[in-house]
Each structure stands twice: as C-alpha cells, then as structure tokens.
C-alpha cells in the first residue's frame, strides 16, 4: 500500500462520526480495506501507522482484534453491513484507503 504517490497517508478514522460518514459515502465497499491503525510495535497497543500516535477510537467487531496465528497487526474495515474493524496480516494484499489534508 502506498498513499505517498497521492501525497496522502493511509486513512486514520478518528471518531464515530467519521466512521459513519465513510460507511454512508462508501456503502458498497465489499472488500477488506486497510486503514491507518497497527499494533506492530507492541501487541495490543494500537497506533496510527503514519504518526505513531495512540489510536483512541477502535470500533472492533465482536471477537476482534484476535491476532489470529499471532500474525495480525494491521486494522481493516469491511463495510459488508457493518462499520466495525478487524485485524489482519499486514502482508495480505488488500485495498487501501488514503486520506489527504487539503488547504482551504
């Protein structure tokens, strides 16, 4: 995944309002999509991959994060009727969502 080519970063969903907005804007996302939340540095300590700041908003699906096979350290969304998050293996080839700051 490389958002840098778009002069952006992986999308970090910061609160419920933003999560709901994404679900409304992209109701047909039927594939897993990476977002900017990882626990690569310390198991269970979820942070922004881009900034390293602690991720305070973590709407996990039931049973998530489960770190299946001790190899799931990156978060993804799957809008198949839910706005909940899942953890997955960071080396999996998934879609990704970028976020770009704009000047007004």
Structural write-up:
The chain is mainly beta and 104 residues long. It is built from 1 helix and 6 strands. Strands 4-3-2-5 form a 4-stranded mixed beta sheet, with no helix packed on it. The chain has a two-stranded antiparallel ribbon with strand order 1-6. A hairpin with a 7-residue loop joins strand 3 (74-77) and strand 4. The longest helix has 10 residues, at 16-25. The termini are far apart. The model has no long low-confidence stretch (mean pLDDT 90). This is C-type lectin domain-containing protein. Residues 1-99 form the C-type lectin domain. InterPro entries: C-type_lectin-like, C-type_lectin-like/link_sf, C-type_lectin_CS, CLec_Tetranectin-domain, CTDL_fold.
Notable features of this structure?
104 residues, mainly beta, 4-stranded mixed β-sheet, two-stranded antiparallel sheet, 1 helix, globular, CLec_Tetranectin-domain, CTDL_fold, C-type_lectin-like, C-type lectin domain-containing protein
Structural class designation: mainly beta
The helix/strand order is: EHEEEEE
Please mark out the parts with pLDDT under 50 across 5 or more consecutive residues, or reply none: none
Tally the helices: what do you get?
Answer: 1
Major sheet size, sense and barrel closure: 4 strands, mixed
Largest sheet: spatial strand order: 4-3-2-5
> What's the pLDDT, averaged over the residues?
90
Which term fits the overall shape?
A: globular
Percent in strands: 15-25%
Amino- and carboxy-terminal Cα gap: 27 Å
Radius of gyration: 13 Å
Short description:
The chain is built from 1 helix and 6 strands, in the order βαβββββ. It has one helix at residues 16-25; strands at residues 9-10, 33-38, 74-77, 85-88, 95-96, 98-99. The protein has a 4-stranded mixed β-sheet, with no helix packed on it.
